[in-house]
């Protein structure tokens, strides 16, 4: 009898990763193996029909899978990405269109103050409204020791990972009606930080507080806010400085499921939280860590 069970230990790539590296910000199309991030086997059920979404960092990794998943559930989607990621962004846009939805491409560098707010306004103009906001864009660069951590890197990491969220939420909320949803991407690093990711982990901890507090602020407006905390996930972040090159081979093998997660696996959590299935869920942090607890 076929019961559709899938062994989580072996469902996706569970061997060592080949040695590789890319210049920041990296491209998903050049990774070996390519992340499972196209939601190829996912069938939508109209959970987000008639809604418009903005997903930052939507060209690759988790953001890409979320954008495609939203489209398959009936949403039109705008994605933000760095100009250097144009080729990945175009690939994502084609998959959104293949799902029968509108795709809007919005290149922007959140290291520059003011860009996040501009992206919101452009998304609203192109889509006509905004019901779903996924703030997922991030910088992750490993550094061995605080004495080697430049303040320029600290500035850039905080600008992209957390300050842009304040700017974007401030710009988006006036456009959002009751029933709208804001989702943020935190990380296992926000709860169990790695010494080599001092600045990144600090921003991810800040995102937890920001998200819970924003949920309290926006509840009277009927806007839900939740955060997702992925564990080690195979994305371009890892191969362009997010992890030391010599640590990539066994990336993710330390968690209970003994492998790195894939973007497709994480996107389902965002889809649930964005939909009416999660109408009584706000101010929460959902872990998708491969095992480690976040509470």
Question: Helical segment tally?
Answer: 7
**Biggest sheet, open or closed, and with what strands and sense?**
7 strands, parallel
Count the domains.
Answer: 1
- Second-tier CATH architecture: 3-Layer(aba) Sandwich
Question: Average pLDDT, to the nearest integer?
Answer: 98
User: Could you give the distance between the termini?
Assistant: 38 Å
Q: How do the helices and strands follow one another from N- to C-terminus?
A: EHEHEHEHEHEHHE
Q: What is the fold-level CATH name, i.e. the topology?
A: Rossmann fold
Q: Which residue ranges are poorly predicted, with pLDDT under 50 across at least 5 consecutive positions? A: none
Q: How much beta, percentage-wise?
A: 5-15%
User: What is the CATH domain class?
Assistant: Alpha Beta
Radius of gyration: 18 Å
Total strands: 7
- Shape, per Cα inertia axes: globular
Task: Determine the CATH superfamily.
Answer: NAD(P)-binding Rossmann-like Domain
Strand neighbour order, sheet with most strands:
3-2-1-4-5-6-7
Fraction of residues in helix: 25-40%
Q: Structural class of the secondary elements?
A: alpha/beta
Keywords: Oxidoreductase
Pfam family, one: adh_short_C2
Protein name: NAD(P)-dependent dehydrogenase
Family: Belongs to the short-chain dehydrogenases/reductases (SDR) family.
């Amino acid at each position: 009898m076929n019961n559709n069970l899938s062994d989580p230990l072996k469902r996706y790539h569970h061997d060592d990763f080949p040695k590789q590296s890319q210049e920041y910000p990296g491209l998903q199309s050049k990774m070996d193996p390519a992340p499972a991030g196209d939601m190829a086997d996912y069938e939508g059920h109209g959970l987000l029909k008639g809604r418009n979404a903005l997903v930052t960092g939507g060209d690759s990794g988790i953001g890409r899978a979320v954008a495609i998943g939203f489209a398959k559930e009936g949403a039109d989607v705008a994605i933000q990405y760095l100009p250097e990621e144009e080729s990945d962004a175009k690939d994502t846009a084609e998959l959104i269109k293949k799902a029968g939805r509108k795709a809007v491409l919005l290149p922007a560098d959140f290291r520059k103050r003011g860009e996040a707010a501009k992206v919101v306004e452009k998304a609203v103009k192109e889509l006509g409204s905004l019901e779903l906001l996924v703030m997922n864009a991030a910088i992750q660069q490993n550094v061995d020791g605080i004495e080697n951590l430049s303040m320029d890197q600290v500035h850039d990491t905080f600008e992209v990972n957390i300050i842009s969220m304040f700017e974007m939420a401030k710009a988006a909320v006036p456009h959002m009606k009751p029933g709208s949803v804001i989702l943020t991407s935190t990380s296992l690093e926000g709860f169990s930080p790695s010494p080599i990711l001092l600045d990144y982990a600090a921003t991810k901890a800040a995102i937890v507080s920001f998200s819970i507090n924003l949920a309290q602020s926006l509840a009277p407006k009927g806007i839900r806010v939740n955060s997702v905390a992925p564990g080690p996930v195979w994305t371009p972040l890892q191969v362009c400085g997010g992890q030391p090159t010599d640590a990539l081979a066994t990336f993710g093998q330390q968690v209970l499921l003994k492998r790195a997660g894939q973007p497709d696996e994480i996107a389902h959590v965002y889809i649930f939280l964005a939909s009416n299935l999660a109408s009584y869920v706000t101010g929460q942090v959902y872990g998708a860590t491969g095992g480690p607890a976040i509470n």
